[in-house]
Amino acid sequence: MAKDWVLVQWADLANRGRLRDVEITFQCGGLVLCGTLIGARDYFEGVGQRAIAGQREAVGGRPEIIEAFQGLYRSYTERAAPERDNLDPDHLHFRDVQILFGHETASRSPVLEIPFWRVRIDAVDGFVLAGSIAQLPVSTVVGPVDEEPNADRDD
After folding, report:
1. pTM of this structure
2. What pLDDT, on a 0 to 100 scale, did the predictor assign at position 134?
């Protein structure tokens, strides 16, 4: 699948720090996701901080494991530095992501909130500049809809 040239430009601008706090709603593999576009560096810094904090809690602060994670995410962050960015990025990075599952369950499923999300540009099926799940036109009807709401009744 080809990469959408608009998303490639947005990813490049976000990676270079020239596009900030843009909320995007996109469809990917049957999911609808809403999030704030960020650069790759911000993504790896944020994910790294969470991973390191998780390791501190999970292993009781074992220095060799924490140090390994710090080095790993530091290398990712350095690789994603704006001056090293590829002019043809392959991924979009988001923070504060809300996920809405497929159309059949949209009115019944709770929104799943994820702190960070990375997606291949060529995996995005569609997108729109828009805010949050709350702004999407999702039906609140759970049961079958009456096909003839104005039908004659014997009241």
Report:
1. 0.75
2. 56
